Amino acid sequence: MRSENADPAGTVTRIDSLSIIIPAFNEAENLPIVIDDVQREAGKHVADGQCEIIIVDDGSQDETSTVAGKAGEQDTRIVVRRHPQNRGLGAAIRTGYEAATMSYVCYFPADGQVPVSSLPQLIDAIGDADIVTTAYTARPDRGIRLLQSKVERLIIRMLFPGTPDIRGVPRFMKREVVTQIPMTSTSGFVNFELLLRATRNNLKIVTVYIDCLERLGGQSKVNNYRTIFKILIEMLKLRFRLFEK
Fold first, then answer.
1. Is the Cβ–Cβ distance between 207 and 134 less than 8 Å?
2. Coil, strand or helix: which one is 40?
């Protein structure tokens, strides 16, 4: 449920409850900053005490688990889930979806590239839609990441002909979306899988454009050929599951 409350700074859109998922893999350096940003921003736009932060440690080998655990001890609204082994971004996101209990679900990566300050923009956009996706006005892609994005879009058009032009990443949605739509991907391809299945279920999707920042620190975990190969395999598997009949 959305409402608008006036405050000295103007009109602020608030929602009754929100689950914010933070998937993290070897992000001990960045995670505390993202947690602080999420807590501060959610406090402005979510009813008091009705925001849970779900940190999913995807088998990290650094101090991510320790950082997440301490955050959970300091704030009872922080829920920590941990994969014993690294299972992939999609698996971490799905674990977060399964743990979510609030009316709306949102996710921000632990690397800080998606500004948490975009949360009010996402809340404003949901309206009567089911899913709000985010596309970037510009992003600091280069090298393999830029190539990866272009190849993914090309292959998607080839494997899923006739699919509506799906843009962006599902960032904010009603919780019933993730409880009713089955997802199987364990890589970042889970985002496209969710949107593809949503369009097949005639759900309403809107897109907003936001900034994309440089990583706060550390190195990307998805810019490698192993991840690209995994995404390709999941594309093929989904293609055959959806069209085998």
1. yes
2. helix
The number of folded domains in the chain is 1
Instruction: Report yes or no on 50 lying in a domain.
Output: yes
Cα–Cα distance measured from residue 99 to residue 25, given in angstroms and rounded to the nearest whole number: 18
Residue 83 and residue 92: Cα distance in Å, rounded? 8
Dihedral (Cα; 196, 158, 150, 212), 10-degree rounding: -10
**pLDDT tens-place string over residues 43-96:** 999 998 899 999 999 999 999 999 999 999 999 999 999 999 999 999 999 999
Strands 205-210, 131-136: pairing kind: parallel
β-strands 169-174, 104-107: how paired? Answer: antiparallel
Q: Is 20 within 8 Å of 100 (Cβ atoms)?
A: no
Provide DSSP, 78-129: EEEEEESS---HHHHHHHHHHH--SSEEEE--TTS-S-GGGHHHHHHHHTT-
Euclidean distance between CA atoms 240 and 224, whole angstroms: 25
Exposure b/e, 162-183, CB count within 10 A at least 16 = b:
eeeebebbbbbbbbebbeebeb
> In terms of Cα–Cα distance, which of 151, 144, 164 is closest to 205?
164
Can you give the residue range of the structural domain that contains 166?
A: 8-243
Query: Which residue, among 188, 200, 197, 199, has the nearest Cα to 229 in the 3D structure?
Result: 188
Q: Is residue 2 one of the residues assigned to a domain?
A: no
